[in-house]
Amino acid sequence: MSDSKKKVIIIGAGLAGLNAADLLFSNGVDVTVLEAKDRVGGRTFTDKKTGVNLGGSYVGPEKKRSLHLAKQLGVNTYDIYSTGPAVFSVNGRIAKTDNVLSLVNVLGLIPALVFLSALKQANKYGKQIPEDAPWDAPNAKEWDAMTVEQWIMKVSSGFKKTETLLRFVVQVILGVESWEVSLLYFLWYSKVCHGYPELLTGAQGQVFEGGSQQLSIKLAEKLGIENVLCEQQVVEIDQTGDGVIVKTADNKIYKGDYCILAVPPNVRSHITCKPQLNGVHHQLPQRMPMGSIMKTFMFYDTAWWRDGTNGQATITDGTIVGQTFDATKPDGSLPCLMGFVLGERARSWQSATPDERKLEIAKEYQRVFKSDKALKFVNYVEHNWLAEEFIGGSGGVAPPGVTVSFASAIRDPVDKIHFASTETSNDWSGYMDGAIQSGWYTAGVLLDKLNITYVDPDSLILKAESVSEDIITDCIVGLVNVLLYIFQCKFLIPCLIFVFAYIVYVYI
């Protein structure tokens, strides 16, 4: 390769690969982006007929990179519908909730406190874990030898509803069951996603007008169609010479100085590397499975659920959907409930037909929202990420033993091959923000190698803590919510006990 103009081959045209390409291209580096699928966007995918987000969708105030990128590309956001209470269906009990303390309605007084205490413990433990090196945490080996299920059984004090809701937290953020993932990985993931309650509340308050995939489409247009090539399945990367030679399934050859492999960790094993990667890099894809998630969309003539709820439901005791959101357009058109099918439930419905799944979902909504109108749907759309070719799920997760022994390989380059994906990010890993950050980071590493001065996009984005550490503010806000709840409650004494217990929870 000539020294006058450097070139980087990027494999994968999702948010990680395209943002890496954009930063390199903007700083004078030639890029070629190769995508195996017939579209760009990776795990962001917008249905052309209905405009719903089949993949990554939600953003919030803390998703600063996504919002910054959208603003630069001229993409607006709108708030998801949130007027009214949400619905919880836990272990056979259905209740409406409008704040965290209303969990008492669902769990009971003491189980609710135990649940909040467990989340606080996760935050506390997370502070001990280095974002860039979780394997260096003081208790890394102990935590990595445990499943999250083992931790849940320790912290739940025997309260079944607390156990159930903590298991649901794992399902909804990782797409796996609590017994499938390492406690160390779960604590690290929670930390880099800004902890609780942010991870469960502020992470999904807005969506992009026109869908999330357009971020990738606009980036690809910016790079030029000659530089972003779809239906180019890479099968081999040869770095035995001075640069890299990338070979596709139809025997096309692309040459560059460096290569960025911007695909999920499990997909890395689909590509032969010469020379072969070391043992840790070689085994990592085998040991980091993808989360199991399906997204479903039930369309109706009217948004009937808005008569008493905001359309958001947490369903731990159902047969198929685990969580719902109102996916109606901001102008009120195309009334729609989006439902996540998560973890084992997603796997158990793989042999069913879409018609069978939609009928079961309609019956689930009828039960949870207590309305026969749920059965009168007019359209149904679903996307099965478990079966998505070249991706295979929602996001990579680490079972016990993997983080300590293998996770260093997730981002460490091997000679001229570098890696980027949302899983390699140390901020909002697993989300669109994480994918963007990983692309910027990896491109920055290469620009440093090439001695090219550049402006780090992260430096343009103001960072703020998502959860206040001001204990007085936390206590005042908590007490206000408690008092509001008291006025709505028939039983004053239990609520006064809750006030006292909540003060103890905040200060201890």
Structure in a nutshell:
The protein has 16 helices and 18 strands. It has 508 residues and is an alpha/beta fold. The longest helix has 18 residues.
Description:
The termini are far apart. The protein has helices at residues 15-26, 64-73, 103-107, 109-126, 140-144, 148-155, 160-174, 183-192, 213-223, 279-287, 343-348, 354-369, 402-406, 432-449, 471-488, 492-507, and strands at 7-11, 30-34, 77-79, 86-90, 93-97, 206-208, 228-229, 234-238, 244-248, 253-256, 258-261, 272-274, 293-299, 313-315, 323-326, 336-342, 379-384, 417-419. The strands form 4 sheets. Strands 5-4-14-15-16-13-17 form a 7-stranded mixed sheet, sandwiched between helices. It has a 5-stranded parallel sheet with strand order 7-2-1-11-18, with helices on one face. A 4-stranded mixed sheet has the order 10-9-8-12, with no helix packed on it. The longest helix is centred in the N-terminal third of the chain and has 18 residues, at 109-126. It contains 16 helices and 18 strands. The chain is 36% helix and 16% strand. It has 508 residues and is α/β, with parallel strands linked by helices. A hairpin with a 2-residue loop joins strand 4 and strand 5. It is globular.
